[in-house]
UniProtKB/TrEMBL annotation:
Gene3D superfamilies: Hotdog Thioesterase. This is 3-alpha,7-alpha, 12-alpha-trihydroxy-5-beta-cholest-24-enoyl-CoA hydratase. Signal peptide: none annotated. One of its GO terms (biological process) is fatty acid beta-oxidation. Belongs to the enoyl-CoA hydratase/isomerase family. One of its GO terms (molecular function) is 17-beta-hydroxysteroid dehydrogenase (NAD+) activity. It comes from Rhodococcus xishaensis. Residues 18-147 form the Peroxisomal multifunctional enzyme type 2-like N-terminal domain. PANTHER family: ENOYL-COA HYDRATASE CHSH3, PEROXISOMAL MULTIFUNCTIONAL ENZYME TYPE 2-RELATED. It comes from the Bacteria. It holds the Pfam family MaoC_dehydratas. Residues 163-262 form the MaoC-like domain.
Length: 286
């Protein structure tokens, strides 16, 4: 049986210890589109050679940024074909600005396994600290495994963010380069779904799709640049649900509403009748 909730829920995954450099930060920022305004000093803060500012979404890739092999969905009580898996949700909360270089340790556990009938949702929670023990960030994410439901588990909660019934306070159009997925995969996510047309076709897609976490980073950067004057240190947390696919070469439309200490966002693809890309998106301002 691919999923055994009695084994999976609460299981601790192997800890990870890792380091990063300003070059890793630069690569990540380039992977989500930084540098498109190469004469803008605000933009160049993301790409400084010595002390680039760091978007909190960097936390989603830093532990595996040097990986060169496709990931495996193999955890205690969970064994799933990679072609069946897409990202469901992602949330990152930073406890201090992420430094441009450093070393850290992450511990992760499987928090929940939900049975959605035709699919399963596996939720992971992780905590990352510097090697001196000071907290850096916490994260919660889920993966959606098609065809792996029906094992008799609980369906789980359904949560959504209601957007204000008014025009957005800002709107941003972000082009997605034709080679964006090929560039972003250099950040450690070598899933062939994002690079191999045959693999993507076997998984049910007409072409390789953009990494959900690339969309996640693009939208966080768009809101940071537009509302927070490009100051990534003001971003305390960022969460989203992956609501649809984005193909390289398309564009993303990010709509932003200010609501107190939060920014509520939506991200859609104009070329496909505003097909949703991210939903239930909340950026918390420090």
């Amino acid at each position: 049986m691919p999923i055994d909730p009695s084994i999976a829920i609460g299981a601790e995954l192997p800890g990870q210890e890792f380091s990063w450099t300003p070059s890793d930060v630069q690569l990540y920022h380039l992977g989500i589109g930084a540098g498109a305004r190469p004469l803008d000093p605000h933009e160049l803060r993301y790409l400084d050679d010595a002390e680039p500012q760091v978007l909190p979404t960097f936390a989603t890739v830093v532990a595996s940024i040097h990986a060169t092999e496709a990931p495996r969905v193999s955890f205690p009580g969970v064994e799933i074909d990679l072609a069946k898996v897409v990202h469901g949700t992602q949330e990152v909360t930073v406890h201090q600005p992420i430094p441009a270089s450093g070393s850290a340790r992450t511990t992760t556990r499987i928090a929940e396994v939900w049975d959605k009938g035709k699919a399963a949702v596996i939720v992971q929670e992780s905590s990352t600290v510097a090697l001196d023990g000071s907290p850096l960030w916490t994260a919660r994410s889920s993966i959606f495994a098609r065809g792996e439901g029906g094992f008799g588990g609980e369906r789980g909660p359904s949560q959504s963010v209601d957007l204000p019934d008014r025009a957005p306070d800002a709107e941003v159009i972000s082009p997605v380069l034709p080679q964006q997925a090929l560039l972003y995969r250099m950040c450690g996510d070598r899933n062939p779904l994002h690079s191999d047309p045959d693999f993507a076709s076997a998984a049910g897609f007409p072409a390789p799709i953009l990494h959900g976490l690339c969309t996640y980073g693009i939208v966080c950067k768009a809101a940071t640049d537009t509302i927070l004057d490009g100051d990534s240190n003001r971003v305390k947390g960022f969460r989203a649900r992956f609501a649809g696919v984005v193909f390289p070469g398309e564009t993303l439309r990010t709509r932003i509403w200010r609501e107190g200490s939060q920014l509520l966002l939506s991200a859609t693809v104009p070329e496909r009748d505003e097909s949703p890309a991210l939903a239930d998106v909340v950026l918390t301002v420090a």
